[in-house]
Amino acid sequence: MYSKAFAPEYQGALTTLSVNSSLTDVLAEGLAQLRDAERAGSREEAARALLAVAEAHRRLGNVAEADRAWKTGYRTARSVGALGTMAWALWSGGTLARQRGFFNLAYRLLAHAADLGKRGNDVVARGYSLAGMAETGRIQGDYRTVAALHEKLLAEARRRGEARHTVWALEGIAQIHRNTGSYDTALAMFEEAAEIAAKADDQRGRAWALRGIADVLSVRDGATERALALLSEAEATCREMNLSSALAYNHKMRGNVLYRAARYDEARAVYHQALTEFEAMSEPRGTALSRLGLVKSLAHLGRDRSSTISDLAELRRTFDRIGLRHARDMADRALVEFQPTAPQPATASQRPALREVAVR
Q: Roughly what angle, to the nearest 10 degrees, separates helices 103-119 and 123-140?
C-alpha cells in the first residue's frame, strides 16, 4: 500500500501545502513564510521557505529567481549547520542545473546533497538526491550506468510505501525501456506509475506518466488519437498547477505524436509553440529537441535539403556539447534520412514560407 503523496520540499510551516498546490500559490506562501521567518530571526525556517520559493520559481521557468533562492537558502542553512536543509537546497540547485543543461554541475550538486542528507540523517533528501543523479544520467542517455541505481531507488521507495518517489522511479526506468525499444515493458511501467499517482493524488506525477503512455502508444501502435487525448488530459493538469516546464514537454510530445502520424503541418505548429515556451524559460534541452522536430517537419513540408542538413548538423553539435547521447543519435538518423540525394518530400510550389519560424 502507498501513502498519499506528499511534497517533502515544502518544509517547516509550509508542510500544509499539497503536492498538487498551484505553483503560484506555493510561491506566494513561500515568500510570506520567508518574511515571517526573517522577522522572527529563524534562519533555518528562512532556509526552508527559500527551498519552496526556489522550487516554485524553477517549475514556473523563472531560472534566475530560482538560482538566487536556492543559493541563498543553502548559505542560510549552512550558517546554522542545518545539514538536512543544506541537502535540500543543493538538491534544488542540482535539479535546476539539470534543467538548464549543466549536467556536470548537476551531478556535483546532487552528489553533495546526497552526502549531506546521509550525514544529516535525512533519508528522503538523500533518496531524492540519488534519484536526481539517476535522472541526470538517464537524460544524457547513460542507461548502463544509472539503470541499477534507478532499480535500487524503486525498491527502496516501494519498501517505504512512498508513492511519489515510486512514481518517479517507475517513470525513469520506463523511459529507459522506451528509448531502448522495450515498448511493452515501458508501457506497463508508465501505466503502473499513472495508477499509483492517481491513487496517491499525485497529479503532477500522473501527468508525466500520461505523457509517457501517449508516447509509447504512438510509437508502438500508431494510436494517434488515443495519444493526443492522453496528452490533452495531462495538459489540463499542467495548466491547473502552472507547470510551465511540464507543459512545454507535453507540447513537444504532441508534436512527436503528430509527426509520427505524418501530420507535418500540425506538428510544425506545435513544435514552434514548444520552442517558444522552452526559450522563454532558458531550457536548452527542450529548446534543442523542439528545434529538431521543427526542422524535420519543415523538411517534410518541402524545405530545401541543404538548409535542413545544415540545421541538423548544428543541432547534432548542440546535443553533443550538452551531453545528450540519445538526442545526438536522433540527429544522426535525421541526417541520414534527409540527405540531399534522397527524394524531395514536396514540390517547390508546396514549400512553406519560413519567415514565421527562426530555425537556428
A: 160
Domain architecture of the chain: domains with CATH = 7-125 (1.25.40.10), 262-360 (no CATH)
pTM higher than 0.90, yes or no?
Answer: no
C-alpha count within 13 angstroms, C-beta hemisphere, residue 167: 28
Residue type present at position 36: D
Which positions ≥6 away from 126 have C-beta within 8 Å? 87, 113, 114, 117, 118
CA–CA–CA angle 151, 19, 123 (5° rounding): 45
Residue 59 C-alpha cell reads as 517549475
Answer left, alpha or beta for residue 181, where phi above 0 means left and psi between -120 and 50 means alpha: left
H helices of 142-201, where? 143-160, 163-179, 183-199
Residue for cell digits 503502473?
A: 192
pLDDT band at 121 (very low <50, low <70, confident <90, very high): very high
Residue 342 has pLDDT above 50, yes or no: no
The 3-class secondary structure across 316-358, one letter per residue, is: HHHHHHHCCHHHHHHHHHHHHHCCCCCCCCCCHHHCCCCCCCC
Largest Cα–Cα distance in the chain?
A: 71
